[in-house]
Records
---
Amino acid sequence: MNEDTLLEFPCQFPIKVMGNNSANFENEIVMIVRRHIPQLGEAAVKSRPSKTGKYLSVTITFSAQSKAQIDEIYRAVHAHPEVRMML
């Protein structure tokens, strides 16, 4: 553990991405994450539409190796034009 984070690596780390519920949103987000984690499996991805169906929440849980890796993934995913919020 270092001073920049309370996490101990490697660890299971979930990111939640909310965006427009377009036909390709989930697939595009997963492809972005796979650039950083090629071995990401289908079971790591959970999706849920909003009540109105306008938005889609995609949660991806992966084995994070470092804070830098998490930061890189957040930056890459956040750059997607349909992303509205990330947790």
---
Amino acid sequence: MVRIGVGERRARLGRRHLLGAGCQAADPVQAATAMVALHATDPATVHLSIAARVPGSDVAGTERALYDDRTLIRMLGMRRTVFVVPTPFAPVVQAACTDDIAVKQRKLLVKHLTEAGVADDVESSGRWLAAVEESTATALALRGSATAQELSADEPRLRTRLSMATGKTYAAQPYVTSRVLFQLAADGRIVRGRPMGTWLSGQHQWSPAADWLSGGLGDKPVAEEARVRLARAWLASFGPGTAADLQWWSGWTGGQTKKALVAVQAVAVDLDGQVGYVLPGDEAPEVPVEPWVAFLPALDPTPMGWKDRDWYLGTHKSKLFDTTGNIGPSIWCNGQIIGGWGQPESGEVRYQLLEDVGADSKSMVEAEAARWTTWLAGVRVTPRFRSPLEKQLSQS
């Protein structure tokens, strides 16, 4: 097997993840395409991930792609996570990942409805859920777009409460509203539209998929073909990676991952003792790029692209990740993480380096911190999942 060492893996990031000078994207769609998908669990991440890769980009340009041109779409995807993907690629993600998620989540919701006493048995709960879904979808179609609160007024059954973790200290009785809307979205029937507030808001209006996009999400490939296409896209952007990396990133089973790698004719390579994979013909070294520095937001797709992160993260996991595996804001230099950043209430970008990178790289870091302070223009971004270092740097 061809050996691809840590140095080569890091070198690929500058060009393939559009972070090196002269390698960046022309627009938000190109940035999302290069990364396969942009994490959107935290709404700020989408804007910041694009700004890191598209010189001169701004919030208005990303919002235009999302809500006016609709060349990007926010949807549920890999690992039951919300992503922003190029609209033509949405049917692939839906068939490769989201359809399976929808089946599993429907079964779970029906179970919870039965446990809450909404119906006497699973079959009856299933019928109740189907009726509420149809009523909610009809109400949304009549309105054109609506918030969860507005739909709850139209369909009172959305205010039905579930009984979660009964008898535990963390027991709760949430409304079924978000679960029903989640299910409709997972089935590809409704989509998240504009946020209710600023670009930092996590509350969105909902719209019927067929109204948001002509023909809805479009024609889906069969699931096996979709998984092959998604695996090929991941390898092109994140390869080399191990089968465990791809399985973690996609949320697939081991069997699904293995079949997809076989179907794309992935080439096995030596990752310093581990077996990794690249696309056929992608074994050669990457064309070098000039030295680069990047400030990436929490949950950026670059650090969230692999399960095994030691080759770019080093010993800094405890400072940069929360306890559930979500990364905070990070600073990169030539393909490795060298520090983290945050914002106090005053809004400027503060940073801390965790590696000795030399005077030239440190000057690049200082310039990039100043650029981000200007770009954010006093807007303070507090990540949804906060890392220890980000919390420290954000203290006033």
---
Amino acid sequence: MTRQTYISLILILGSLTALGPFSIDMYLPGFNAIAIDLHTTANKVSLSLSSYFIGISAGQLLYGPLLDRFGRKTPLYIGLAVYIIASVGCAVATDINVFIALRFIQAVGSCAAAVASMAMVRDLFPVKDSPKVFSLLMLVVGLSPMLAPTVGGYVIKGFGWHSIFIILALMGFAVLLASRFGLPQTHKPDPSISLKPKPILQGFATVLKNPQFYTYALSGAVAFSGLFTYVAGSPLLFMDIFKVSGEIYGWIFAFMSVSFIGTSQLNSVLLKKYKSEQLVFVGLALQSLISITFLIAAIYHWLNLYGTIAMLFLYLGCLGLTNPNTAGLSLAPFSNNAGSASALLGALQLGLGALASMAVGMLVKDSMVPIVAIMAGSTLIALVILLVGRRNITSLADMEGDAIVMH
């Protein structure tokens, strides 16, 4: 593989992975504007974020077997077409309940891109290189929280919130073209894979029984739910509690992403000296310490706007260290059914993220404590899962060149 081909693949796979985050982040500054236009409240609008997380979580399980059965590209095209249509529907919605439903459909479409991207990483790159590739994808993905809310704030101010979803539809079309002409078919269709419910569930069960998968996928997903807690709670935290404008909120959100991007790229450097398993443990231990400190400070009202930003910056930095490694370690044991494994990984991450975001919508009113409590609780649970589960795992070094083929 030439360097030019390598860079091209990373950019296209990154754009597939980034479509979901853009769909989540870009409309966040418009919560209040949507609430006014659709005659509802910002808390009700936040349910459109929860419905998106639920849709993208459920859709992961749908696309996993399809990607293994029909190859990577055909299900990807169908999913992107659904995404484009639903995005246009969101732009013209006049009722909050219709808007929430369309966000669910939009998510079901977009998750085809996320699952296909993870599966293609497993198809195209050696097992030992997966954490590094995921770190590079995090660089591309990390641009979305830097750009999306900031650009979204100005677009909403100049053209209204409806224009956000027209832009997302155009982005979906651009990603569809890039996938069609820039990606190889990395997995041939496999007619032996059944699409009947029982074999699909048996395949998922086989993946879930693998100690490497359930330890790192579950610990990584529980920890990563802290990010969804932050995303769902940040409009309420900054615009309602701290009373910043939509444009300023966009800049704060962009600044926060520097932490996630920076540590995900630092991860690539650290992998030259340390194992992925070591970096996951260190990342979760630091995240636990930071989240406990953050919770105590929130309870006793020690934090103003700038102190809150500082604590969130440190917390998100830990996620940039753990997430690429847990993703790589989770998928390492699988080859033929990498689509199903990728789907389960994504479903765990986004399903827990949906629950976290729903909790934020129900609990957060005029205090940051519920947000920080959810973040701290998820981090501590993730650390416990890691410590208990890793006792039964074969190390990544023992698996290099000998990935298990599972059906």
---
Amino acid sequence: MFDTMTMTKTVGALCGSLLVFLLGGWMAELIYHSAESHDGEHAQAYVIEVAGSEADEEEVVEEVDFAVVMASASVEDGETLWRNCRSCHALEAGKHGTGPALYGVVNRPVAQYDDFNYSGALAAVAEVWTPENLNGFLEDPKGWAPGTAMGYNGMRKIEDRANLIAYLETVGD
């Protein structure tokens, strides 16, 4: 039924078809994408502007005063948010986990405990854990205090940070 010549033609036809598809894909890349960018990703060569698209609209980020948000903070919601922190911190004075104890942390000196090995990055940016300093640190720990050992990525919502700080104010001195 199949002789050598028929088998050779069949394999050649499959390889030829594959080659046509590969060349077609390569040509499409050249047509629809510009040269590679510096990070190896392709940028779109031609963009069709659409009225009312997201690219046309400038996103206005409204700067919110933290004191105003802090005035309306909820201690109960902050207690719920505390669950994320307690895997590394404790609320008992002098009892440390991976991070230092947070008992009475609001308005206390930074790096207060002598028996905890602080990274040193915190003392370089602040002297006291004011609510504003805690807000900045909780938003982006590594951005606020570069070199900190805290591995937390940060809390994005300002209301959540205010609620957590309001709860921490009720714990301790």
